[in-house]
Each structure stands twice: as structure tokens, then as C-alpha cells.
Write a structure and sequence with these properties.
Layout: H1 18-24, E1 27-31, E2 37-44, E3 47-53, E4 57-64, E5 66-71, E6 75-80, E7 83-87, E8 92-97, E9 101-108, H2 111-117, H3 119-129, E10 138-139, H4 142-156, H5 162-179, H6 182-188, H7 190-193, H8 197-206, H9 213-219, H10 224-235, H11 239-257, H12 262-268, H13 274-285, H14 289-297
Antiparallel strand pairs: 1-2, 2-9, 3-8, 4-7, 4-9, 5-6, 5-8, 7-10
Helix pairs in contact: 3-6, 4-5, 11-14
Length: 298
């Protein structure tokens, strides 16, 4: 179905993201306050986004067009019009939107708010998550299209107020419970339902600040032995192994998918010299940074 999304047709007393408009030609409108749900409506021409950090738990509904997202260098999602997907707050991602893509993003700015206010819904989904397959996308139920029509209408007519839109996000979860099975939603949200959210958030916010697992443990509220046990419970492997792989994946992603110079990459990953970065790449990738980047350009 077609929606009215003329530029400037949605006005609120909150934030209008002019930076997004200038960067990629999209129109982004926010209902936003600290620690409250955010409803974002985006109409964009073809655009590619590299090396982004989600920073929120959110549902992305593709009403028109196509959205391709690859996050954490592994999970690729291809959502076409009439489909939606979930992206976890810890994800680093690359995304490509086709021309004429029209999205509605519904998110919360902090993971703990999501789990506080919608705890009953999510506990139900969590109970189901161990017994269901992971879903990358789900079809948008026709009732949800009516729901979005209402939200867009409210925005276009100038309805504001954070409480109103908090209630609308709660309504979305109630619609999920009516028109989707617990297994479907649990499968979609599995990336966060299967983890300890606060611990995962701590690790992903701080792992770049350290060189060794013991340094990460020292930043936490755990003693080193308890930290190691907790880490293995949440991530399924030792901190040393996880940190080594995460660092390797991230360095390779920076070399392949960004235009950062080698000095900047070396500094970000705590190498003291360019030669150390060069030696690291030879050891782990069997190529120098320059060779890796030239392969991408060919």
C-alpha cells in the first residue's frame, strides 16, 4: 500500500534530524525524549551505510522498497516491502537501502527500559525462545499496516507527547501477541532474549578500551574468576577467545569497509606503531593492510 510521506508533512515538538536529511537524502522524524520509545519514519533514495552501530533495540518495518542489513559480520537480513526485522542494540552493521524505500523504525533508547516496561511480554517470549528457530524477518500483518497508518496520521496532524507514543509502542507488543505466535516473536528477538542484556552491554561498550581479558574484568563489578565464568555463560566461550576474534573481525571490517587511514585504525585498536598493525595483519590474515584494501578495490 502507498503512504503519504511528503517532505515536511510530519511535525512534532521534538527533534527533527536534519543531519540525516543532509547525509543520505532521507526524511527522518522523531518522537524522542530521554529513555522513552522512539518512532521514526524514513523515506529515502538508494543509500549505503557502512560501519554503523545500532545503539538501540528496534524493529524495522519495510513498507516499500528493500533493506539489506549485515550485522556483526555474519547475519545478513534482506527485508523487502511487507516484511520486518529486529536489530539488537549491540550490533555493528552495514546497510543498503534501495531507491524509494519507506521505513518505520520503532525503538527504545536504552535496553533496560525495554526490559523494564515490557517485561511481561518479553518474559513470555523468552520462555518460548529456547524451543523455536531463529527468524531473520517476519511478514507484516495487514492489521499492522492499519496501525502504521494511524501513527503516521497522528504525526502528520501534530500529535505529540511522549506518553502517547509509549502507549502506541505497548500497543505494538499487544498486536504481536494477537497476530504472531510467541515462537515467531521470540525467534525474531533471539539475539537479545538469549543473552544477559546488562552484561552484554557492558562488554560491548568496553571491549575496545582494553588489551586483555583481565583488564575488562577489572572494569566490571566482578572479580576475575567470576567474570570469566559469567562471560562464558553469556557468550559461550572464554573472554580471551572472544576478544581475540572480535578484535580480528573488527580490524578486518575497518580495512575492508571504511576509508580510514592505517594510522587511525592502529590508534583505535591500541597498536603503538603502524608496524605492529602490519605484523598483526600478516599473522592473522596472511596479508598486509595495504594488500587487504587493494583486494577490495579490485
Amino acid at each position: 500500500m502507498k503512504f503519504n510521506h511528503e517532505p515536511g508533512s510530519i511535525k512534532t515538538e521534538y527533534q527533527y534530524n536534519q543531519a540525516t536529511l543532509e547525509k543520505n537524502g532521507s526524511y527522518a522524524f522523531f518522537i524522542e525524549e530521554m529513555c522513552t520509545p522512539v518512532i521514526e519514519v524514513i523515506a529515502t533514495q538508494e543509500v549505503e551505510l557502512r560501519n554503523g552501530i545500532a545503539g538501540f533495540n528496534g524493529f524495522v518495518f519495510v513498507l516499500e522498497g528493500e533493506c539489506r542489513v549485515c550485522y556483526d559480520h555474519a547475519n545478513e537480513i534482506i527485508a523487502k516491502d511487507g516484511e520486518f526485522f529486529f536489530i539488537p542494540y549491540y550490533a555493528s552493521y552495514n546497510a543498503r537501502l534501495s531507491g524509494g524505500t519507506y521505513l518505520v523504525v520503532i525503538r527504545l533508547t536504552q535496553a533496560n527500559v525495554l526490559f523494564g516496561r515490557y517485561k511481561l511480554h518479553l518474559l513470555d517470549y523468552k520462555k518460548a525462545s529456547d524451543s523455536c528457530p531463529e527468524h531473520l524477518t517476519l511478514p507484516i500483518h495487514p492489521i499492522l499496516l492499519k496501525y502504521f497508518e494511524g501513527i503516521i496520521c497522528y504525526l502528520q496532524t501534530g500529535v505529540t507527547g511522549s506518553l502517547f507514543y509509549e502507549i502506541k509502542v505497548r500497543e505494538l507488543f499487544l498486536l504481536f501477541s494477537e497476530f504472531y505466535t510467541r515462537q515467531e516473536i521470540a525467534g525474531l528477538m533471539n539475539p537479545i532474549l538469549s543473552r544477559d542484556i546488562s552484561f552484554t552491554g557492558f562488554v560491548l561498550e568496553n571491549w575496545r578500551k582494553v588489551n586483555h581479558a583481565r583488564e575488562l574484568a577489572a572494569l566490571s563489578s566482578y572479580c576475575e574468576s567470576a567474570f570469566n565464568r559469567k562471560f562464558k555463560e553469556v557468550f559461550g566461550e572464554t573472554p580471551y577467545r572472544w576478544l581475540s576474534q572480535k578484535r580480528s573481525d573488527s580490524i578486518l571490517n575497518e580495512l575492508k569497509h571504511t576509508n580510514k587511514n592505517f594510522k587511525t585504525i592502529a590508534e583505535e585498536f591500541r597498536f603503538n606503531t603502524l608496524q605492529q598493525l602490519n605484523n598483526y595483519c600478516k599473522c592473522h590474515f596472511k596479508k598486509t593492510p595495504g594488500e587487504i584494501r587493494r583486494e577490495v578495490d579490485e
